[in-house]
Design goal:
This protein has 126 residues and is an all-alpha fold. The protein has nine helices and no strands.
Length: 126
């Protein structure tokens, strides 16, 4: 009986069964038309906005400053930066990252080279 409705309304078997499995009545699943591409896009955009963690304004600001979304996200979430700083501070060069890493290591461990190699005094023989 429903196969006639499915064929007449242009709904294939998979979407019909998916709807039934989600709790739709068989009649509603067979008669309600499939969403258009525009409706699917709007639903997707609505879901994205609903689940968004960071405001669109900050994501756009980061993009305008040449900061990729994943860098912005990492700075805000993992580094503990506030969103304004994460969206506006320029990207660091590899040299800057190395210098900062070495500085933090010295702050945390002290003179690590002396610990490993021992202090060596150079004497001049002349």
């Amino acid at each position: 009986m429903y196969s006639f409705l499915i064929e007449r309304n242009g709904i294939s078997y998979d979407p019909f069964m998916s709807r039934v499995n989600r709790g739709w009545s068989m009649e509603k699943a067979a008669t309600k038309p499939l969403p258009t591409a525009e409706e699917r896009r709007q639903q997707s955009q609505h879901a994205t906005n609903h689940l968004r963690v960071y405001p669109v304004e900050y994501i756009q600001l980061a993009n305008q400053n040449g900061i990729p979304y994943h860098t912005f996200f990492n700075r805000a979430k993992n580094c503990g930066w506030d969103m304004d700083r994460a969206a506006t501070e320029p990207l660091w060069t590899r040299e800057q990252m190395g210098r900062l890493g070495a500085q933090r290591l010295r702050e945390r461990e002290g003179d690590w080279a002396a610990q490993i190699f021992g202090k060596q005094q150079m004497s001049r023989k002349g």
